[in-house]
Design goal:
about 750 residues; Rossmann fold; Immunoglobulin-like; six-stranded mixed sheet; about 30% helix; binds 1-deoxynojirimycin
């Protein structure tokens, strides 16, 4: 009987694959009707190839993967770097499995693919949404040609604790800016049509509040209020969902004791119901099974039950909990089959949206892959974003920019001439072609006059820097007109599972700086790192500091443009750099306290007894080779009603000698509200280009929508009353005005 029904329904499945039926819902339903329970559960199972086998040919493990495809017990793979192997698996799915459902291949494409872009935190410091979108477009073009259908990006966790290694993957401490960047990234990856072969499915992660991990320790607990969740951590996710992102990933953490992979309130109620998200949710790596360790389930059956009853995870990444338990759970009546159908449907819809049912092989395009590797535009896009991401932190006596006609230059430090993995990029760069990286030496050599002497000294390593290496570095410094010291932490020190308890320059690098400074030569410190560092001593002692982050493939070229003034630095920090470790967390949009500090060293005020409250370098801060003056800050009205728009205008003039870009920022503060409101909140910015001597009027618009917050009843609304608006070149360097919402 069953067989006959299947045979009758088969034409619908074929139709779903071959015709252009508009309604993906209908298509997915028509396929699900043909599937056995085991096959539906198979779609919810994701396996990792590379890490599991570490072996490319014919092992038992590989047989297991192939067999799983054949019998329909896997729907997706991650970490399959080999294109031929992906093709092989897809062929098995299409030719040897009963349902012929294409596999969806996933990978962490975090900042570029073969051509590596700067790390996401760096990118955010460009405040250039178009360049960020372009960067993800390039990544999608390259990854899709190599058979990647789905990236586990963007990471849109708001991050306020630089001890957490993953801050490199996000967009910093601000929710509003983070939301704009989230949308740019989704557009870049997914384009306007997911079914095109050069667009890939994006994944909003980690849902949610992973950035609030206690002590910045990876995989750790999160304890935040519902207000903070909704106000600080959720908006970038809501923005990504509204922008049409196709998938979400559970975070590893608990909130109020509930792990995200089983958190009904978070996933089922907020994401799937309140926000009406129709895509699918993948667990993080084994995060469903890890609910056992969290102590909220007693065995594998129990974790699978929790996640599926609560509809909190549609796909189980490498945890095997679903594949081992769901069938039994349905048979025992502990999990409704309808929930499995729902999860399966969400996944099938993504496969339809990607066009995989029409052509399961469309992303495996060796010619396009070859062409993409040679596309000259891609490194240029990476370079463009890298130079826009760099932040000039200090430039006493205008040491920078350097002259190309300089007679001699000493390049000292572990990052001066490196071709080593992860020196100019994070560890999230599985597809990277390390040999293509332009290092600092190469970039500078391409830039300076042929007669310029470049003395390179890389003896002093990131960690290991012996006294004799320091002495040699001093000798090298003495030979040159100017010294560029290239120091930092490489990509193995930040990223997943790379939390640090000290966030200073690792190893003995400070001793190197100290010794080189003693030569009296002008010193430019170029920093390569993936998190805000504590740089109090460096700031006090080194005349010029350029934050280069991990700039990616075009590191050296981008740096040379900045150091020699072909590009005037314009980046502004999106994460505060603490004055000292003990200040953490330190972020600009903090709440006021009942005892705000007005004058330094006042007693009985909210302060430290040994350090200031302010960070060393605040949010929105970054220098330029030129200077900008702000004047004529004006409001179009002193009050508006909830339907009106307030215009906030300001004139910016380039009063220095160089042409350059400025990121003009606008903040607000709700002065009297039902709950205490942050001392400043970003609500607008514009990046403008001004020739030396030129000025421009910038006008921002504010409406009641920009003033809304989650009030004491957790209703999202604006309060009537007075507000401050601040305009300026950083979160601290502002002019303020007051207006009322009537
Ligand atoms: C764990 C990480 O938390 C997540 O961000 C990543 O996408 C997955 N592993 C897959 O590599």
């Amino acid at each position: 009987m069953k067989k006959t029904i299947l045979l009758l329904l088969l034409p619908y499945a074929v139709m779903a694959q071959n015709t252009s039926i508009k309604n993906i819902d209908f298509k997915a339903d028509s396929v699900i009707k043909l599937m056995t329970l085991e096959e539906k559960i198979g779609q919810l199972n994701q396996l990792s190839i590379e890490f599991a086998t570490g072996n490319k040919d014919g092992s038992a493990a590989l047989n297991y993967y192939e067999e799983s495809v054949r019998n329909g017990t896997v729907g997706s793979f991650l970490n399959t770097p080999n294109l031929d192997y992906k093709i092989k698996l897809q062929k098995i799915a299409m030719n040897e499995s009963r349902m012929k459902i294409p596999i969806i291949f996933a990978l962490d494409v975090i900042h570029g693919y073969k051509v590596i872009a700067p790390i996401p935190l760096a990118q955010s410091c460009s405040w250039d949404l178009k360049a960020i979108e372009k960067s993800e477009r390039v990544a999608a073009e390259m990854a899709s040609a190599d058979g990647v259908h789905w990236t586990f990006a963007p990471m849109i966790d708001v991050t306020r604790d630089p001890r957490w290694g993953r801050v490199m993957e996000g967009s910093g401490e601000d929710t509003w800016l983070g939301s704009k960047i989230a949308v740019a990234r989704v557009k870049g990856f997914q384009g306007d049509d997911l079914s095109k072969n050069n667009t890939i499915l994006a994944c909003a992660k980690h849902f949610a509040a992973y950035g609030a991990a206690e002590a910045g320790r990876e995989y750790n607990t999160v304890e935040i209020s519902e207000r903070q969740l909704r106000e600080v951590y959720l908006p970038p996710f809501k923005a990504a969902a509204d922008a049409g992102i196709g998938s979400f990933m559970n975070s590893f953490n608990t909130i109020s004791g509930i792990p995200s992979s089983g958190n009904k309130h978070l996933v089922k109620d907020i994401l799937k119901t309140e926000w009406n998200f129709k895509g699918f949710v993948v667990s993080d790596w084994a995060s469903i099974s890890e609910m056992l360790n969290h102590g909220v389930a007693k065995d594998t059956m129990d974790v699978a039950r929790l996640a599926m009853v609560n509809q909190t995870s549609d796909m189980d990444m490498e945890g095997m909990a679903y594949i081992k338990s769901l069938k039994k759970l349905v048979e025992q009546g502990k999990v409704p089959e309808a929930n499995i159908n729902d999860a399966c449907k969400r996944i099938l819809k993504a496969k339809f949206a990607l066009g995989l049912f029409q052509d399961p092989f469309k992303y495996f395009d060796k010619k396009r892959k070859e062409a993409s590797l040679k596309n000259p535009e891609y490194p240029l896009a990476s370079r463009d974003l890298a130079k826009k991401s760099m932040v000039l932190l200090k430039n006493d006596n205008n040491i920078l920019p350097l002259k190309k006609s300089i007679k001699s230059i000493a390049l000292i430090g572990a990052f001066a001439n490196s071709k080593k993995d992860r020196d100019y990029m994070s560890f999230w760069t599985f597809g990277a072609e390390q040999k293509n990286v332009i290092n600092l030496y190469e970039g500078i050599k391409n830039k300076v006059n042929a007669t310029t002497q470049i003395f390179v000294d890389t003896l002093c390593g990131k960690v290991d820097c012996q006294q004799n290496a320091i002495e040699k570095a001093v000798q090298t410094a003495l030979k040159a007109e100017v010294v560029v010291l290239a120091v930092g932490e490489n990509g193995e020190r930040n990223g997943e599972c790379r939390s640090r308890s000290e966030i200073n320059l690792p190893g003995n690098q400070q001793a190197l700086i100290r010794a080189v400074l003693k030569t009296g030569k002008p010193v430019v410190l170029v920093l390569f790192n993936g998190r805000p560092l504590t740089l109090k001593w460096e700031n006090d002692n080194v005349p010029a500091i350029l934050e280069a982050w991990q700039p990616g493939t075009e590191a050296g070229n981008a740096l040379a443009e900045v150091l020699f003034g072909d590009y005037n630095p314009s980046g502004k920090l999106t994460m505060s750099f603490p004055y000292a470790l003990g200040q953490i967390p330190v972020y600009y949009n903090q709440l006021p306290t009942g005892r705000p500090l007005v004058k330094p060293n006042e007693m009985w005020k909210s302060t430290f007894s040994d350090i200031p409250n302010e960070p060393l370098y605040p949010f929105g801060f970054g220098l330029s080779y030129t200077k900008f003056s702000y004047s004529d800050v004006a409001l179009s009205a002193s009050e508006i009603n909830i339907n009106q728009t307030l215009e906030v205008s300001v004139t910016i003039k380039n009063i220095g000698k160089y042409d350059g870009e400025e990121i003009v920022q606008m903040y607000i503060r709700d002065l009297v509200a039902e709950v205490s409101r942050p001392v400043k909140e970003l609500r607008g910015f514009e990046k403008i280009y001004l020739k030396a001597g030129e000025s421009k009027k910038v006008t921002f618009k504010l409406t009641a929508e920009d003033l809304k917050y989650w009030n004491s009843d957790l209703v999202y609304k604006a309060d009537l009353g007075d507000f401050k608006v601040f305009v300026g070149g950083s979160s601290v360097d502002v002019t303020e005005k007051v207006f009322s919402l009537k």
